[in-house]
């Protein structure tokens, strides 16, 4: 894998001078396309051996492009806000919006590789983290990003020479750290770990480019050429897509997305499904409700103050039919809690900043820190529900969302987060009654919009989407709770009880 | 000030039951207006003595409103990210967008008051911080926010009784901390400091509401009534404004803004102004440039690695005529630096999230941490330049922006930030030549837009705006540097040299 980058590749000064101006002009041109189209964000990962040219290449990238549209993400240790959330949170928050270029020093490879080098991680864990990275990159590419990963390499002796040269020069000595020398001593170990990482994560969606860092001319031309090739490739693919879309007047899936294998729709075997199996007559008499509400609220309140909880963030998400009582259920949970303990995030149309990022970005940004809870009023399931039903997301996009969502939730659970997912169900008849009641009360009128009536008409399609969603995303790590919401009292107690039991189970583990 | 909140105010249960349902219904109605209009964010500050009902009131607010549109900001100690920026940064980042309600525990009063109580701050410093707070609140209100500040109070003996009662109850004991008991012991001292804070910051824009916390019924009705009064007042004022705007077809300033005294336009006394006094023939021969560029870049690079700099963030902002060479100057600065040291923020049209916050929010969010530098390509001066000239901001709005900007920059400088402000000037003739040259080069064409031609036509108005901007905002703390940019070499070296000297001066201080 690295052999061809340990042979002392060089390029003559003349060849460099001949080629660089052309590449430079081409890159500025390509970047102006990126800025104009705002359809692609470029994620550049700079990784590699100490002294092999990461810093110089970041510098070069700043010079090749208009640096006003480039953002650099250093490889600092995570700060306290980042430490109390899943490790990928810090990269999600620093993703550039479409049209911009993000340069990541080591990026999401940094910690996993370092941990493996220092044997804080065994092979199996390392591989699992690499799998997670592959999924992240695939998701980013599917969502329109271009991922370019550079591994800067050097032969063992060359690395030593290079570090010595840097250390000898007054202007560059500061860049050679003790850590660099330490790394140079473990050359073999680092090379092995890196090779595995590069091999395992060189995918069609996001391949690695291994570049020998010995000779500046060679390295810079290699970087610039790769950038030209990759960016032109993506822009050309977009042009093709646009042309194809023009040729066929009906909405057609984007090529990149269409290529990915997605599971076919599920066949329904029996006569019943999770929705029709639900007993909507479930009912809780008012007196019982009055007795049980303080009981479960009290238990939740005490749980929220448990010491053990400080290691866990809690995510509770609420989906359901319009007027099924999501708001009321959320209030009963909120009432139980210290207002400083939780936040509520209502999900409406995405902002333009959110639209300029991969779909899940708008949810990542609201994830709770350890020891806190966030309730999502509607959630990332919008993609496989309303966006599917109303055609905002083309089929290949919402199809791949099932896997993306499962992976997202798995990532949260693996990092000690507790997830509770509620889907609240009312019959069409009860819903109609609630709509009418809302229209009569002045201050509830804002809760009922033309969208609500529109959604009612699509109930059949929506039901199908719900059934498939439950089948595909009710996992052992993050199961769905279907809530019979025909009777509000029953629904609220079921939500509270389920939440309490979910948290208790997680804390006992 | 507090006497009337130390007399044991109570309200009968019957009176409470009579009034609360009405207030509750009214608040939900008012909130639905807030959500619909999205023109006002409500900032509620909950401050007061331990045991006087802050937590309960936060809870109450969550119950009175639809909690999905309420966000609570606890009074945690600042985290890593917050500590390395000016103290107000953490509040700017947690400001709710228009349409939402933010509940701040102690908010921006927390640290100043605590510091004064513990005598970490003398009276003069305390007063200065209160002045800063007043300006912040005035700005927020001018920008459309509603600020409601509650001080929950108790008589000395009542406080002790209340804490004892809370501590005796199993469900509330956790809320009484050692710090609370400590505070109860320093009752007199805390009362004095708080009284000064409340007195000094009770302004027309953002008055305090002092509420005795002894009796729950009394306290809750007082809070709910205040909320109803304040929110109705603001909504009614907006209705009046809208009606007035309809009556007079021409754009009229918003009432709240118009009421504030703004300085009149400056009279020009002499024949010359800062722009015409500028010697645009300033020129640097190419050979000198080639010699000086590495000199100043090297000095800047070495400065950026100075230990002392780790206490300072650097803000460099670039304004100027279109095609004056801002981009080129920024590149020459960037070239000198480690890419991890700086960021570049190009300022274009605000995103919808930015529009939902006070004007300066979009700049606060990009402020550098200590030890880092951010270059703004265009800046907060847009309000008194392009927004003034093109009429995007009504006159009272851009008039008050001068003071807001000076206060903003003062706040940065007071917290060890280094500011360099560059305004780059080219003649109309040279500008025209550069426009034409850009149009000829394919990959530079994106740099020239219809806006640029439009701006050219308004050069006279723009000049006037520049002259007034320089006069009003070139302060000793943050002076403007006018850059003769007719000759690019001269301009770039002047920018680099000024930046180096500005940083050196700050480090020597």
UniProtKB/TrEMBL annotation, chains A, B:
Q: Where are the transmembrane segments?
A: none
The UniProt annotation puts the region (Disordered) at: 242-263
Q: Where is the Polyphosphate kinase-2-related domain?
A: 11-232, 285-505
- Source domain of life: Bacteria
As recorded in Swiss-Prot or TrEMBL, the protein's gene is named pap
Q: Where is the composition biased (Basic residues)?
A: 247-258
Q: Which GO terms of type biological process are on file?
A: polyphosphate metabolic process
Pfam family, any one: PPK2
Q: What is this protein called?
A: Polyphosphate:AMP phosphotransferase
């Amino acid at each position: 894998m690295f052999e061809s980058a340990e042979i002392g590749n060089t390029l003559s000064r003349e060849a460099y001078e001949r080629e660089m101006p052309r590449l430079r002009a081409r890159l500025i041109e390509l970047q102006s396309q990126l800025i104009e189209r705002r359809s692609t964000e470029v994620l550049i990962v700079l990784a590699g051996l100490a002294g092999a040219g990461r810093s110089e290449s970041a510098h070069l990238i700043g010079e090749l492009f208009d640096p006003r549209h480039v953002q650099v993400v250093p490889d600092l240790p995570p700060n306290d806000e980042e430490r109390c959330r899943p490790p990928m949170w810090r990269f999600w928050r620093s993703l550039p919006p479409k049209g911009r270029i993000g340069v990541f020093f080591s990026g999401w490879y940094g910690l996993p590789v370092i941990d493996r080098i220092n044997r804080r991680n065994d092979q199996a864990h390392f591989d699992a983290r690499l799998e997670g990275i592959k999924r992240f990159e695939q998701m980013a590419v599917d969502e329109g990003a271009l991922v370019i990963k550079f591994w800067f390499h050097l032969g063992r002796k060359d690395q030593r020479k290079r570090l010595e040269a840097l250390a000898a020069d007054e202007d560059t000595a500061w860049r050679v750290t003790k850590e660099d020398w330490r790394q140079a001593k473990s050359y073999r170990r680092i090379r092995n770990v890196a090779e595995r990482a590069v091999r395992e994560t060189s995918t069609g969606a996001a391949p690695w480019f291994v570049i020998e860092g010995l000779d500046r001319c060679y390295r810079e031309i290699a970087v610039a050429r790769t950038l030209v090739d990759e960016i032109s490739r993506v822009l050309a693919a977009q042009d093709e897509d646009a042309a194809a879309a023009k040729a066929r007047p009906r909405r057609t899936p984007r090529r990149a997305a269409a290529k990915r294998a997605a599971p076919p729709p599920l066949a329904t075997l029996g006569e019943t499904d999770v929705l029709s199996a639900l007993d909507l007559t479930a009912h809780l008499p008012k007196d019982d409700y009055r007795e049980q509400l303080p009981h479960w609220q009290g238990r939740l309140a005490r749980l929220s103050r448990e010491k053990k909880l400080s290691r866990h963030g809690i995510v509770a998400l609420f989906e359901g039919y319009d007027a099924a009582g999501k708001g009321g259920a959320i209030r009963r949970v909120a009432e139980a809690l210290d207002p400083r303990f939780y936040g509520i995030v209502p999900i409406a149309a995405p902002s333009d900043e959110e639209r300029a990022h991969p779909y899940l970005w708008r949810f990542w940004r609201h994830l709770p820190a350890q020891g806190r809870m966030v309730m999502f009023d509607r959630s990332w399931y919008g993609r496989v529900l309303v966006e599917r039903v109303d055609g905002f997301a083309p089929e290949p996009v919402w199809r791949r969302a099932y896997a993306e969502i499962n992976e997202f939730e798995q990532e949260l659970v693996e990092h000690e987060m507790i997830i509770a997912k509620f889907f609240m169900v009312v019959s069409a008849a009860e819903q109609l009654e609630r709509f009418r009641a809302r229209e009569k009360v002045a201050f509830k009128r804002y809760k009922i919009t033309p969208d609500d009536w529109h959604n009612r008409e699509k109930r059949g399609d929506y039901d199908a989407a719900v059934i498939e969603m439950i089948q595909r995303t009710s996992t052992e790590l993050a199961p769905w709770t279907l809530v019979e919401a025909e009777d509000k009292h029953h629904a609220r107690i079921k939500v509270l009880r389920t939440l309490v039991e979910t948290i208790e189970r997680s804390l006992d583990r």
